[in-house]
Amino acid sequence: MNVITDHLSEFGHGLLLTAELTLLSLAGALVAGTVVASMRVSPVRVLRAAGMAYVEVLQNVPLLVWLVLAVFGLPEIGLMTGLFTTSVVVISLYQGAYTAEAVRSGINAVPAGQGEAARALGLTFTQSLRLVVLPQGLRTVVQPLGNIAIMTLMNTAMAAAVGVVELTAAANRVNLAEATPIWIFVTAGLAYMALSGLFGLVTGALERKWAILR
Amino acid sequence: MSAPSSRLLFDEPGPRARRRIRIATVLAVLVAGALIALALRQFADNGQLAADRWRPYGTWPMWRYLLEGLRSTVQAAAMAIALAGTAGVVLALGRVSPSRWLRIPAGAYVEIVRTVPALLLVYVVLFALPRYGLDLPLFWKLVVPLSVSNAAAFAEIFRAGIRSVERGQLEAGLALGLTRGRAMRLVVLPQAARRVLPSLVSQSVGVLKDTSLGFVVSYAELLYSGKVLANYNHLLIQTYLVIALVYLVINASLAKLARTLEARQRTRPSRSVRQAVPTAQP
After folding, report:
1. For residue B179, what are the CA distances in angstroms to B24, B166, B182?
2. Would you call A46 and B247 a contact, using CB atoms and an 8 Å cutoff?
3. Distance CA B97, CA A134 (A)
4. Tell me: the pLDDT tens digits for B238-247?
5. How far is residue B4's CA from residue A127's CA, in Å, rounded to a whole number?
6. In whole angstroms, what is the distance from residue A159 CA to residue A143 CA?
7. Within 10 Å of residue A201's Cβ, how many Cβ atoms?
8. ipTM of the complex
9. Which domains does chain B have, with CATH numbers?
């Protein structure tokens, strides 16, 4: 057990970085996902096609390929961004595709009468989406969005493979220095479980607060 | 699928709405064109558009090498899907079993593994197990952690399938004198598996994507082959773009298959109707 207490600061830093990566990526994914989902339900065919292409392309290439492409490829075309920033942006865009699908299913779950009522009041497409449909649609997909949050947490570990020293990479470094793998990896695993447990609790609370029973 | 969403937020456009849609279309095309132009300029300014940086990808030896990597990807994915799928069935049966001694361990496995990243499991197999005298071959160093982590996902899919089969099916099996195990195996599971087939295909796409962790294991699947290739010919961005394209083509086809299966299930008429229909439709 000494291994853990001796390296508490490494674990702490790793955990902090994982939490930062997850929260920033989630925020980005929510924005990207909402925008893409709105494009997919818009009356403009080009936007619908673009939204669909975004989801297809992002979802069907592994996250690690995107990370490698961005981290090692972007400098080759003269775009120098920090490792952390690049990782956050890539994970945001990747999770954004999944978020878009969840949000879209939420939009589709809103009864057609709501959209018709909004139009009858004279709201434009953007207004009826922003003021009437999205608020209701998002509230019906709290649970799926919670699952996406946990998936994002799991996927931040991929950043370890391109050199971000988050929790997984930190555990690996400590292991290389100390060579007592079991406790080190179990600790990292427990930390991940604790974080996703926390996400589960938050999702549950939000769900109770916001869910619309249909 | 798109019909209900398009009905929800806009009506049949009138003349003014049509004009607005046309303006939005032109704007969207302009923005997309500008983005593409910007990206191309960035590529060109750094000499990444030069023909001789792309020409190698028109040659057979390069593709033979990448296809070799793709074969390893498919092999690893197939093995991981087979192992994780089998384990998933067992775990799902455990989770719906009446015995608490099966239900609790199966539930615990699923809940724990679902919240541990696959890469952490890869590191465990890569760096922890050899310390305890278990040094697997490279192939298994990739396949074992992927199977362990995806077994939980497959278990959840199968459990949802088993839950969706009406209780009466199991009861009818029991009434016929089958044991619980045989009723599950002969009556419930086949129906459950058919219902969750689209999800199984989607999850298999996930496994195929996860095999890119071979990058970490140095197992020569597609992404790691790309890394080796890029180190050798220094065409880094070109190599990884080609690899992304290969993944995209394969996974998009599988995802399309999953959607087709789902659509067919949703509107599945009985077999006799299906046989009668093709002659009716031109």
Report:
1. 64, 18, 5
2. no
3. 41
4. 999 999 999 9
5. 19
6. 25
7. 11
8. 0.91
9. 62-265 (1.10.3720.10)
Which residues of chain A does B120 touch, with a Cβ-Cβ cutoff of 8 Å? 157, 168, 171, 185, 188-189, 192
Position B13: which residue type? P
Cβ separation A196–B117 shorter than 8 A:
no
Plot region of A163 (φ>0 → left; ψ -120 to 50 → alpha; else → beta): left
| Reported pTM | 0.90
> Could you tell me which CATH class the domain A2-210 is placed in?
mainly alpha
Q: How many CB atoms lie within 10 A of CB B108?
A: 10
Count how many residues are written for chain B. 282
Mutate to test the interface with A, among B53, B66, B115, B131 (most CBs of A within 10 A): B115
The residues, ordered by sequence, that sit 6+ positions from B29 with a Cβ below 8 Å of its Cβ are: A46
Parse chain A into domains and list their residue ranges: 2-210
Per-residue pLDDT of chain A (214 residues; tens, 9 = 90+): 577 788 888 899 999 999 999 999 999 999 999 999 999 999 899 999 999 999 999 999 999 999 999 999 999 888 888 999 999 999 999 999 999 999 999 999 999 899 889 989 989 888 999 999 999 999 999 999 999 999 999 999 999 999 999 999 999 999 888 878 888 999 999 999 999 999 999 999 999 998 776 5
Best of A11, A18, A46 to disrupt the B interface (most B CBs within 10 Å) is A46
Residues A190 and A197: their CA atoms lie apart, in Å, by: 10
